[in-house]
Structure formats: structure tokens, C-alpha cells
């Protein structure tokens, strides 16, 4: 029998569903029956975090008032029939299980990613931070009859978000129960429960091995929508796979015999789960008995061929593809053919058969692209060769969608030039190049910083069959400005008419921003004039750029008034631009007064204060910025992490290191903390306050050791600062090197060792220079010409002329620059200080 890791907690949860009594005491000061010591220790190691402000969005006329009702005032008629519990403030940034599960589910959040549900979820989440979840739940309970399915979906999403973040098992169960009650209310009100809602819920319960809870939720979902029974089979299979119950998995697999005319939806969902979890033994047997042409689900076909590609099962893939090729089916539902056969005359059947055959070939091509791009240990070039070879063997032409997959795969692998080759081949084959393909290319160019490749895309557009979008043109114009090719940007504006597209403000704004980056104000103002002549109205982004690049108060006022006269609504970005412009022009009081403008919405206040902190700190008014930050901390207002980092970055050279340490600790999310922490370390190195650096690093060893942190780059910056700071602290550098290797388990990078060796040159420290030289070998980094030259300089600077002479014989001297550096090093480092 399978035992759930939640153990006796399952019975606790089930009993709560049946009884509406108060919750038990928290687990903070007592043991949890049936829970391992490891789980107990996890539960007790809580981490607290500050809350966030909320955005005002009307759900009904009562919502804004209800959000501020106290917990004692919310105990009224309970429409959702939720039992009353003691309100508990939310422990944020803690996880019941490894946070890797949360990251996997990020893209599958319970509530839909549309504007309304996002706003409602934000209201609900922020209210829970301020009032506690119980008071918030009671407030929304009072208007439950007015709530739509969107609001219910958002509530479930927030409950499970809080449950999966919590380290308090009792707290997590409370929120699972609340979500369960909301789900029952949706069922009772006749709402359809969509997979975007129940899918992440069931996956969470599966991840937590909560078997009884899983079945309770599954029953409510199936009762609300009987048509979901087959789809729920997918999650049931996932559950037994997760629990390692081979008997149950085998029992469900037994339903798939391959003898029917087609696979049932339930059988297809079982297969899909097996593919997702890569159950090799079961799939190997099933692939021998199923008829691939009977698979109706395109999602299942995609996963089957993705699985086959991942494990390089060429023979099985070839067999399936030939069967699909001969059937002319691909992922087409053959039942539709039989239906049409009965209702359409023979001539029409023949016509449609041709169409279906073409569709089948197209889908075979798509499956080839899936299989080839999922094959491991292949370079992009080898993947393309495999793609072409399989098409030739099956005698099918690549479809536009298979080409699109291949282009995206190449772009995701940062092989942009190869992707462009594929696109050119598409054009030569007469395949239309879609806007999505262009988007993948342009995004990849941006990622790899190969901006000049935009010219090749433009050339393809002028010579091949292409259907670009306005967004494609905007991206190309922006990339042209990044390489200062403003003529090319204007040429692209002129080519819009060839594709029946019109210029818009975002295109002109890209050129405007480019000229401002180059400090070419005259050309920037000319863009605005050309914009108006083309009949394109400047928008808030246009005025934001204009205001942000002003250095005089009268000019700022001029553009702001012009914007209002044009009927352009002031946005948050406009107010931020005003703050930045006033601060840049030395009008600090004016910058502060922007927040007092009665037209500024209250919901912008925290973000504008954060912008003000950054603007003041970066323009020499750090004391004022710090004062505003302390005020926001006292009122528990949310501060943009970038503003806190600005306070660290622009600290005075005689600033207090302890203040910077506290600022870094105030950064809650990991990425911001890493940035702020290492800026604080750099400050300490550059301002001779390095005595506590090792203690700070050792105190944060656990956080720095996280797998998803890439801190090596930040250490490179620290070693660079050590090399550039006079007098050079080589001992600190060597201590950091030992810490990286022994405490964090890092292998030092070439940059790290290069900077450290340069520090040894400046310090004339031959002993440590020789130790660093050995580190190249320990790190399996072959010494290059630059490494030899630095070590040569170390020996010269330390006075070991014989050693330097011996090393010089090993340095390749084919390059004239290398010869020049050797000669100059002899002059600079071998002379006495008096002669220098």
C-alpha cells in the first residue's frame, strides 16, 4: 500500500471538510503527528517578509470599502460556508517543499493571465498581506454572489500560491481547504471548472503526495463537469507514477490494448502522462501494440515524438512516421472522414481525400521537426541534417510550421546565422515567412547582441515571400538604432507601404530614443517633427523621452503642457520622467513636488517614491533619498529593489558599511539581493573597508550556494576591483579565491585568475603570483598568451630576472603587439623606482 508523505495530515484535511470547527493551533510550538523530524525542522525555520501595496480595481461598488474592514467586522453570513479560523499573517518566501516545484509551476498559474483576473488576484493577495487571509476571505465572502468565474479562479490561484510558498504545514492545509471550498461553491453555482484552474491544483497535490486530498478535489471537479472524467485520468496516472505505485500504473496501462478502432480519450490521457513522466518500460511495451494512426490527440502525438527523439528511438520513430505517411493522416481525426463519407457524394469525398492527404503530409513534417529537435547531444547543424534526411527518406516536403519549429530551435540555441540560413531556404522553396518566424529571429538577435544581422533580415524581406507585422518593423528599426544605422531605420519606415502597413508612434519612438542615447538632441527633435508630418500623433512614451532628456525647468514645463493640450493622458512613466528630469536639472524640490500633484493617482505613490529615491541618490542627494526610504520602511510600503540598489551604489566613500549591509538585507527577491550584496562588497573593496568582507560572505554561504544563482560573474567583478584598487590587496584576493573553492565549491574562472594575477603584478608579489599560476592548471584552464605575459610581468616586478627570461622563451612572439608588450614590460618593471 502506498503511504502519502502527508500521512495523517490527509485525515486532518478530510475531517475539516466535513466539520466546520476552528483550526488547530499552529505547528510552531508543537509536534505534528506522523511527520518526520526533517519536515518539523523545515516548518520551524520560517523566514518573514514585508507585504505589498494594492492596486485599486472595481469588482463591485463595495470592494474598496470591504478591503479595509477589520477582522472582527467580517464575521457575517458566510455565503461560501467556510469555517471560521484565527487570522494569521502570511509567511512569505518560504516553501513547504523544494522551491524547484514552484518554479516548474510558474507558467501554469491557477488563474488566467488576463488583465481582469490579474488585477483581482493582486487585490486579493495585497489585502491578505495587510489584513490576514481570514479577514480578507470574510470581506470577499460578503460579495460572493456578485463574483464571476474569473474572480473565483483568481481566489483559488492566490490560495494555492500561498500554500505552496508556506513552510507552515498547518497554514498550507488551511489554504488548501479554503481553495477546496471555493471549488465546491463554483460547482454548486454551475460554473465550469477549466483545466487552467484545476490543473495546477491537482499537480500541487500530486507533488505533495496528498492522495486523499487529490481524490477529494478530483471528485468535485468531475461532479461539476462530467465530461472531464477522461482528462482527469491523465492526473490520476501522474499521481500513481509520482508515488511509485507500479501496480496501479500497470492496472491503468492494462486498459490500453490497441484492439479497438481507435484509442479512447481516457487511454490517450494515460499515454500522455506516461510520455510526460518518461516511463520507459511501460511505453516500450505499449509502442509495440498501439496503432499510431489511431491516435487522435495532436498533443499526444507531439509528446510521443518528443519522447522518441529524446531517447533516440530512431527505429520506432521511423516506423510510426511511415505508418502516418501511408495513412495520409498525421494528426487528423480519421473519424471525420467516415462522417463525411456518409453525408457527401463520392466526388466530394475524392476532393476532400486529396486535401486530407496533403494535411497528413504536413503533419508528418511537423512530427519530423519535433523528433529531430528533441534529439540530445546534437549540434544545430546535425539537427538540420537529420531534419532534411528524414524528409527525403519519407518523400515529404517540409511544411511551413516544421520550418518554423526548426527556426525557433536554432534561435533558442543562439545559432542565429544558422536560423537565417534556414529562413533563406524557406524563401527559395516558396514557403511564406511568417511574422512569428521574424519575431523569433529578431528576439534571438537581441539576445546574442548581433545587431548587424538585422540588415540580413531586411534583405530577406525585400527578396522573399514575407508577411511581416508592424511589431516586426518596430523591432528592426530599434535594432538599427542600436548600431547607429539611422539611415537604415528610416529606410525601413519607407518600406512599410510595400507590405500595406502604416507607421506608428512606437516606430518613431525607437528612432527618437536612439538619437537621445547618442546625445543628438537636434536629430531627436527632428524625429518629432517628421512624426507629425507623417500624420502620427506623439504618445505618452514620446513625451516621456522628451521630458526625460530636458536639462532646464522651462523646457520640462513646455513639453508637459504640450502633452496635456494634445489630450495625451499622463501615465506613470510620465511622472517618473518628470522626477528624473527635475533631479537632473538640479530642481530637487520640484522633483519631490511631483508626488503632491493632485492628478497623480494614489496607486502610483510607492513607485514614484521609489523613482524619487533613485533620482536623488544618483544626483548627489543620497541623504534625502535615504530619509524617504526610511519613511517608506516605517509605513511598510513597497520599495522598488532598484531604488535600494541605487542607495548602495551611490553611497559616499566615507559611508557606513553597516548601513549598506542592512540595505542589502532589505532586498527580498534573490536576484535583487545578489545585485545589491555584491555592489556592497565592491564598495568595501574600493573604499578600503574590506576587513569584514570574508565574514559577510561566510554569513551568506547558504544563499550564495543556491544552484540557480550564477554568482561567478559577480566574483569576477570583485577581483577586478581588487586589481584596480591601490594599494592592491592581494591577500584579500587569495582569501576570496580559497573561499570560492572551499566553501562554495566553485571553479575559478579565467577572468578571476587573470585579474588576480594582475593584482600580483601591481603588488610585486611573486609568491602569490606563482600560486595563482598553479590555479590555472587546477582549474583546467590552459595558459594563453595574456596569462604568460602577466606572469612574465610578475617575475620582472618582483626582481626575478632569470625566471622572467626563462618564461619569455615560452611566449609565442609571432604577434608584433606581444613583442612590444615584452619590451615595454622590461623597461617598466625591471628598473628601480628612482629611474622610473
Rg over C-alpha atoms, rounded to the nearest angstrom: 32 Å
Outline the biggest β-sheet: none
Mean pLDDT over all positions: 78
Helix content: 55-70%
Per DSSP E runs of 2 or more residues, the count of β-strands stands at 0
Helical segment count:
45
Would you tell me the structural class of the helices and strands?
mainly alpha
Tell me the strand percentage band: under 5%
Shape: globular
Distance between the termini: 83 Å
Residue ranges: pLDDT <50 for 5 or more in a row? 1-116, 330-362, 832-836
Protein name: PROP1-like PPR domain-containing protein
Organism: Brassica carinata (Ethiopian mustard)
Keywords: Repeat
Domain PROP1-like PPR: 408-563
Short description:
With 836 residues, this protein is mainly alpha-helical. Helices cover 66% and strands 0% of the residues.
Structural account:
Helix content is 66%, strand content 0%. The protein contains 45 helices and no strands. The chain starts with 8 loop residues before the first helix and ends in a 7-residue tail after the last helix. The chain is an all-alpha fold. The model is unreliable at 1-116, 330-362 and 832-836 (pLDDT under 50). It comes from Brassica carinata. InterPro entries: PPR_rpt, PROP1-like_PPR_dom, TPR-like_helical_dom_sf.
Amino acid at each position: 500500500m502506498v503511504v502519502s508523505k502527508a500521512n495523517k495530515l490527509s485525515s486532518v484535511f478530510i475531517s475539516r471538510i466535513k466539520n466546520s470547527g476552528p483550526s488547530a493551533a499552529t505547528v510552531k510550538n508543537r509536534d505534528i503527528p506522523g511527520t518526520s523530524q526533517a519536515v518539523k525542522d523545515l516548518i520551524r525555520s520560517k523566514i518573514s517578509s514585508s507585504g505589498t501595496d494594492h492596486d485599486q480595481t472595481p469588482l463591485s461598488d463595495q470592494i474598496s470599502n470591504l478591503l479595509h474592514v477589520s477582522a472582527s467586522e467580517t464575521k457575517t453570513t458566510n455565503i461560501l460556508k467556510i469555517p471560521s479560523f484565527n487570522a494569521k499573517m502570511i509567511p512569505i518566501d518560504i516553501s513547504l517543499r523544494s522551491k524547484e516545484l514552484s518554479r516548474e509551476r510558474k507558467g501554469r498559474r491557477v488563474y488566467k493571465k488576463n488583465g481582469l483576473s490579474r488585477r483581482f488576484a493582486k487585490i486579493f493577495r495585497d489585502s491578505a498581506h495587510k489584513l490576514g487571509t481570514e479577514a480578507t476571505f470574510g470581506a470577499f465572502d460578503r460579495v460572493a454572489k456578485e463574483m464571476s468565474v474569473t474572480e473565483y479562479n483568481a481566489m483559488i490561484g492566490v490560495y494555492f500560491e500561498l500554500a505552496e510558498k508556506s513552510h507552515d504545514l498547518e497554514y498550507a492545509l488551511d489554504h488548501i481547504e479554503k481553495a477546496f471550498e471555493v471549488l465546491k461553491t463554483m460547482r454548486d453555482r454551475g460554473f465550469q471548472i477549466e483545466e487552467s484552474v484545476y490543473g495546477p491544483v491537482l499537480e500541487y497535490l500530486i507533488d505533495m503526495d496528498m492522495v486523499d486530498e487529490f481524490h477529494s478535489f478530483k471528485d468535485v471537479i468531475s461532479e461539476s463537469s462530467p465530461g472531464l472524467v477522461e482528462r482527469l485520468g491523465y492526473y490520476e496516472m501522474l499521481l500513481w507514477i509520482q508515488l511509485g505505485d507500479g501496480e496501479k500504473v500497470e492496472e491503468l496501462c492494462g486498459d490500453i490494448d490497441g484492439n479497438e478502432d481507435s484509442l479512447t480519450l481516457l487511454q490517450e490521457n494515460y499515454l500522455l502522462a506516461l510520455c510526460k513522466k518518461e516511463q520507459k518500460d511501460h511505453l516500450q511495451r505499449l509502442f509495440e501494440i498501439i496503432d499510431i494512426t489511431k491516435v487522435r490527440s495532436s498533443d499526444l502525438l507531439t509528446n510521443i515524438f518528443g519522447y522518441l527523439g529524446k531517447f533516440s528511438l530512431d527505429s520506432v520513430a521511423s516506423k510510426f512516421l511511415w505508418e502516418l505517411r501511408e495513412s495520409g493522416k498525421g494528426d487528423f481525426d480519421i473519424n471525420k472522414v467516415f462522417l463525411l463519407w456518409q453525408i457527401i457524394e463520392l466526388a466530394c469525398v475524392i476532393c476532400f481525400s486529396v486535401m486530407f492527404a496533403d494535411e497528413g503530409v504536413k503533419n508528418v513534417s511537423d512530427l519530423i521537426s519535433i523528433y529531430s529537435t528533441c534529439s540530445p547531444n546534437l549540434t544545430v547543424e546535425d539537427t538540420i541534417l537529420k531534419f532534411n534526411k528524414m524528409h527525403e527518406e519519407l518523400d515529404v516536403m517540409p511544411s511551413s510550421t516544421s520550418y518554423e519549429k526548426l527556426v525557433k530551435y536554432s534561435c533558442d540555441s543562439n545559432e542565429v546565422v544558422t536560423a537565417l540560413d534556414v529562413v533563406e531556404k524557406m524563401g527559395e522553396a516558396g514557403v511564406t515567412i511568417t511574422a512569428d518566424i521574424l519575431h523569433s529571429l529578431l528576439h534571438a538577435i537581441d539576445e546574442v547582441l548581433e545587431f548587424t544581422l538585422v540588415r540580413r533580415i531586411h534583405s530577406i524581406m525585400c527578396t522573399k515571400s514575407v508577411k511581416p507585422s508592424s511589431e516586426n518593423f518596430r523591432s528592426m528599426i530599434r535594432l538599427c538604432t542600436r548600431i547607429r544605422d539611422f539611415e537604415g531605420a528610416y529606410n525601413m519606415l519607407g518600406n512599410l507601404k510595400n507590405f500595406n502597413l502604416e507607421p506608428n508612434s512606437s516606430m518613431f519612438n525607437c528612432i527618437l530614443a536612439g538619437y537621445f542615447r547618442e546625445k543628438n538632441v537636434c536629430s531627436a527633435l527632428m524625429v518629432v517633427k517628421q512624426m507629425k508630418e507623417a500624420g502620427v500623433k506623439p504618445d505618452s512614451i514620446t513625451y516621456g523621452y522628451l521630458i526625460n532628456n530636458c536639462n532646464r525647468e522651462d523646457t520640462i514645463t513646455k513639453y508637459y503642457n504640450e502633452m496635456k493640450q494634445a489630450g495625451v493622458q499622463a501615465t506613470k512613466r510620465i511622472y517618473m520622467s518628470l522626477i528624473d528630469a527635475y533631479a537632473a536639472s538640479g530642481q530637487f524640490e520640484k522633483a519631490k513636488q511631483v508626488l503632491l500633484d493632485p492628478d497623480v493617482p494614489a496607486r502610483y505613490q510607492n513607485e514614484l517614491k521609489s523613482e524619487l529615491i533613485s533620482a536623488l541618490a544618483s544626483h548627489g542627494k543620497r541623504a534625502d533619498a535615504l530619509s524617504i526610504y526610511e519613511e517608506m520602511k516605517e509605513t511598510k510600503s513597497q520599495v522598488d529593489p532598484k531604488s535600494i540598489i541605487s542607495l548602495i551604489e551611490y553611497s559616499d566613500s566615507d559611508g557606513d558599511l553597516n548601513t549598506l549591509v542592512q540595505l542589502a538585507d532589505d532586498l527580498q527577491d534573490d536576484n535583487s539581493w545578489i545585485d545589491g550584496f555584491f555592489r556592497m562588497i565592491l564598495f568595501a573593496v574600493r573604499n578600503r573597508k574590506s576587513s569584514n568582507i570574508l565574514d559577510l560572505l561566510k554569513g551568506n554561504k547558504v544563499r550564495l550556494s543556491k544552484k540557480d544563482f550564477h554568482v561567478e560573474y559577480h566574483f569576477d567583478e570583485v577581483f577586478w576591483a581588487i586589481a584596480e584598487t591601490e594599494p592592491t590587496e592581494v591577500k584579500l584576493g587569495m582569501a576570496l579565491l580559497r573561499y570560492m573553492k572551499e566553501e562554495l565549491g566553485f571553479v575559478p574562472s579565467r577572468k578571476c585568475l587573470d585579474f588576480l594575477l594582475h593584482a600580483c603584478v601591481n603588488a610585486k608579489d611573486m609568491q602569490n603570483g606563482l600560486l595563482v599560476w598553479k590555479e590555472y592548471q587546477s582549474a583546467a584552464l590552459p595558459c594563453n598568451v595574456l596569462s604568460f605575459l602577466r606572469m612574465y610581468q610578475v617575475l620582472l616586478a618582483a626582481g626575478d630576472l632569470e625566471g622572467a627570461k626563462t618564461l619569455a622563451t615560452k611566449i609565442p612572439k609571432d604577434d608584433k603587439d606581444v613583442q612590444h608588450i615584452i619590451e615595454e614590460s622590461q623597461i617598466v618593471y625591471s628598473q628601480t623606482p628612482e629611474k622610473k
